[in-house]
Amino acid sequence: MIVICLTQLTTSALVASITVLVLAIFLGFELISKVPPTLHTPLMSGANAISGITIVAALMASNTQLSGGNKTLAGILACVALALATINCVGGFMVTGRMLEMFKRKEG
Amino acid sequence: MEWFQALGYLLSAVLFIVGLKYLGSPRTAVRGNQLGALGMLIAVVVTVAAEWGGEGIIGWSLIGIGLGSGALIGFVMAKKVEMTGMPEMVALFNGFGGAASALVALSELLGSTPDSLGDRGALGATVFLGAIGASSLIGWVTLTGSVGAMLKLNGTLRGTFSFPGVNLVKGALLAAGLYLSYSLICDPTNMTMTYGLVGASCLLGVLFVLPIGGADMPVVISFLNSLSGLAAAAAGFVVGNDALIISGALVGAAGLILTGIMCKAMNRPFVDVMFKTYGVAAGGDTGEKRTVRGYEAEEAALTFDGVRSVIVIPGYGMAVSQAQHVVRELGEELESRGVDVKYAIHPVAGRMPGHMNVLLAEANVPYDQLYELDAINSQFSDCDVCLVVGANDTVNPAAHTDPTGPLGGMPVLDAEKARTVIIVKRSLSPGYAGVDNDLFYRQSTMMLFGDGKAKLAELLAEVKAL
Most CB atoms closer than 10 Å: which of A59, B126, B174, B410? Predict the structure, then answer.
């Protein structure tokens, strides 16, 4: 059974996505304009972990149903992407947590 | 998209936004990180739930293996890394994120057929292919750039590598990358073009990082962080997922802000950092040979006798020799004698934004003893002893005395105003900017040559014996 349900991208859907992109960029600028230097490293490492959101894209790519194309290679690449993105997420959040624990220890 | 999936992504986007916000303040940072991780978990669970039922190209068992092995590797790496190795680790994770986005793009392209592209409609296919091009270009640059940065940070690659016309080559590679991305839209079946794009992007990443010197690494890492976010946003357009677009854009913007902060701290425009190679040829400036006398720890320890205030300036050398613990011990010893001890942190000290703060926190130096440049600079004139551990350019008075030099105008810590300056350093070699440091030759300066940790341990023993 091959089910391919690609909905065609409409102009309005594309514009909506671009709107989201632009607004999110501005939001990102606003969010961290004032951060004490102490937190630069954890902030960067935390943001880095969030960029591991590509794990969602890797999941979707790993689970597409293909009608043709180079299925084997596409599958291998998707699986590697999934592993790398997971390393980025798990490692990133954990390392950030470890750093922040050290800061916290002295305040309490 | 299922309704619960869309709502789940919205929830995780909100958690990322609040998480990033919380990461910006010391009180809430731990919670911020947890919220971010929770957002990620929700995004993954929701995606799996929506995809569940259909068996795709690699099947759920392989997906499980991919997730499991990634989580295990990430867990072990994060547990094992030393705090001094943090810049390398962050750089490497960055590269993995970028590579994942690029691989997703390539995988989606490989799985496409003229039919499936036709199903997307003209606009859909163009956006899909354009996003694949962008995701590949940015993603591969992020990967090779990050790996290059990591090798530089851990000392595998030393010095700066550059050649005449390197900027032209970089420009040509970027142009080639853009052209190949464009040709991908026109002819998606031509895989030679696609692999050319991968090659050009990888090479561009390497050439982008190699000519940049170690002291500029905080800028580079922040910028690569930004790029990994943008790659994720591009991947969001590939798979048609707003969660990626939002999160990627947030990280992209956040990384750019940090990049700007780092550039400002060095008083160098971003373009200079990216395209000018510093400190390779410079060095012997006046030709005048000056000699400097090295002191013994014993002599240096005597200057601590009866002092009231001490300011410690850590630099990258402290990280290299892992001297942060012995620095803290010395600080505590002095405090127990009633000395007021402060730490002056230059914004670009080390190889990563906030590098010194992390190391000193690891060594348990109280947070309230760390002072930023603006807060501490007026206090050096009242300071009895300034102890410089492995810092150079960040305390170089040439920033004031030679406004046209490479360091001219860079905000520096005014260590020279202290009554006595003790500098622990391996050698007299100029810092990254290639400018001789006048501070080393001053009458009020005592140079302690040697490994930071060893010298400070000697100094500590002598101070204890006072």
Answer: A59
